[in-house]
Design brief:
The chain is 9% helix and 31% strand. The chain is mainly beta. A hairpin with a 2-residue loop joins strand 5 and strand 6. It is elongated, with a radius of gyration of 33 Å.
């Protein structure tokens, strides 16, 4: 009589191998464990299908996905409280669908506190579109209105070259603004495309290169 091999399931990844030998006791036939019982843990080559996760797809262009982690911090596209750079005249989507009413999201021009006046009113649990304008300051800030000490970050606004009125296109309206500024000294003005403190022929060359384009 050959010994019998039994495989006992002990959990999701572990099995017990039992080898039984036949022996006669009186007229009966009994199986008993071998003197040295064989034990083995069988580990699958790959995790069960239920434990496998497909890699998350990157967010669409101009989309920022906000979540809240266990340390009361915002994660934006999987980065903790990042500094975000946005271009004036371009429309962006803030995906706040994972944000609950515990962490209302606002934008203002204050680096520390989430108080009004708001550039973007409190929002959570939805998709919010945001288009920076020429009237907004170069630096603005996002906050959680509740946990603003740890859930906040900076947003830097930049100009699309030549789009002086932040409409998303470089056209004749921008040319009129440029002509009015030509020959003037300025610091940080939109018509000073090369940021040298003067609106001059060098800026005109840059403006011509951008004319007719969309941001």
């Amino acid at each position: 009589m050959y010994p019998q091999l039994h495989l006992l399931h002990m959990g999701s990844t572990k099995f017990l191998v039992v080898l039984l030998f036949a022996s006669y006791v009186g007229e009966g036939l009994f199986f008993s464990e071998a003197p040295s019982l064989a034990h083995a843990s069988l580990i699958p080559c790959s995790p069960p299908r239920s434990a496998m996760r497909a890699p998350s797809a990157p967010p669409p262009p101009n989309t920022f996905v906000f979540t809240a982690n266990g340390n009361f911090q915002y994660e934006v596209n999987n980065v903790v409280n990042p500094t975000i750079t946005l271009t004036r005249g371009v429309t962006y989507t803030f995906d706040l669908t994972a944000i609950t009413d515990e962490h209302p999201f606002v934008i203002n021009n204050q680096p520390v506190f989430p108080f009004a006046p708001y550039i973007l009113d409190p929002a959570y649990g939805q998709l919010v579109t945001f288009t920076p304008t020429a009237a907004m300051p170069n630096t603005i800030h996002y906050h959680c209105t509740v946990h603003y000490g740890s859930m906040s970050g900076t947003i830097n606004l930049v100009n699309c070259p030549g789009d002086l009125n932040a409409t998303g296109a470089v056209n004749t309206a921008d040319f009129g603004i440029f002509v009015n500024a030509f020959g003037n000294a300025c610091t940080g003005c939109t018509s000073d495309l090369n940021n040298d403190g003067q609106v001059n022929t060098a800026d005109f060359g840059l403006f011509v290169n951008s004319f007719g384009t969309a941001c």
